[in-house]
User: Fold this.
Amino acid sequence: QLKTEASQALYEEANLYTPGGVHTSIRNVEPHLVFTRAEGAYIYDADGNKYIDYQAAFGPYILGHNHPYVNGKVIEALQRTDLFGNGTTDLEIELAKKICKHVPSAEQVLFCNSGSEATYHAIRLARAVTGRPKLIKFQGCYHGWHDYVARNMLSAWDMVGKRDPGSAGMLEEALDNTLICTYNDLADVEQTLQREEGSVAAIIVEPIPHNIGCILPREGFLAGLKKLCEAHGALLIFDEVITGFRHDIGGFQKVAGVTPDLTTMGKAMANGFPIAAVAGKRKYMERFNTKPGGDVWFAGTYNGHAVGTAAAIATIELMEQEPVHETIFRLGDHVRSEIRGILDRLGIQGVVSGFGSVWTTYFMDFEPKHYAELQHNDAEFYVAYRKKLMEKGIFKLPMNLKRNHISYSHTQADIDYTLEMIETVLKELKSSYKQGTEAGKA
Ligand code: PMP
Assistant:
């Protein structure tokens, strides 16, 4: 049994001052933990429980928590500089140069503070460039909290052909102008573009929809999107907020060999420090009014703060100098093949998916093709699985439709222990719990 008394007491206090006691909706899950320390692959709560962390705060920690090299560079930067309301900084120039060097679509780049800001700017730019109102996004993909990407994977209504209520308070127009297609279905996208001929500004896509775990693009899907965009005069936006820097220093676009018009990045870019970026073709980026004559508003008091820029430079530098991706990819491959073996040995229905440092176990008996099929996922089984793993000191995301992240700080020993515990826990669950209570319902 997990000791949570100290966390519970603090959580009650948090609720007095903050609605729900947490500062992001998705953080409100049981057990309600209060975290007090993070280091490398480990996180610690108020009761002194230590966990090997695979949630990685939804993905930023590619090097590990509180990485000494990154933190050192941030401290060094703060000893001489911080934030200015005019001009630019040496750190901003250095970081922009690195991103344009590594990310194929980045001829120019602008910095902001969160992934939501980056997608907002990219979508508004696409609307300005094309003079069109509509946006195509994909079922299950998440691009932030704002009205421009009103529909997201958290809603049961995020199904093709249905209208998502989005969030209370959203503009009806934003919902009306967001069209949903099925990931990996080029025919669906083509039909939508034909039906809406002349009104679609952009297609935005997570090149791998990690907000529903890991569904890989079918051969030719991403290249097909690019062709369709060219044929119908829309811009292609890769939302690489999760995939950028995690799957390659050049993002998943480098791996896929498909170069979008615009790219959004965040998360792994700065190993947990708050910074994000929108990048793309110069001819589009120069529409932003950071350049005199530009007519697309771009601003932010904290844009380019020394903390985020120094952290991003350091994170990318480490990727340039050390075998970061090679190491985390090797561990990822190992985890996936071992979990596959465990499921087979125990006769548990499941699909093990992933890419590089990311893995997902869907407790279902067939390869999911899109979000709708994930309704077959055995959510109840996953909740029990996650809870038991927490008791063994392993921390996973609260939802089965999400992913696990390996960082450069995870050791082979961490991974071996994790796999051992996964087998132990699944063995216990198999004898005490009947899988399939949800399977086949949808
Ligand atoms: N795009 C993607 C693909 C994301 O996963 C997220 C956040 N999970 C966002 C955009 C929004 O980023 P942020 O939470 O930093 O605003």
Q: What stands out?
A: Residues 58, 114-116, 119, 142-144, 206, 211, 239, 241-242, 266 surround 4'-deoxy-4'-aminopyridoxal-5'-phosphate (CB under 6 Å). The domain at 5-66+323-432 is CATH 3.90.1150.10 (Aspartate Aminotransferase, domain 1).
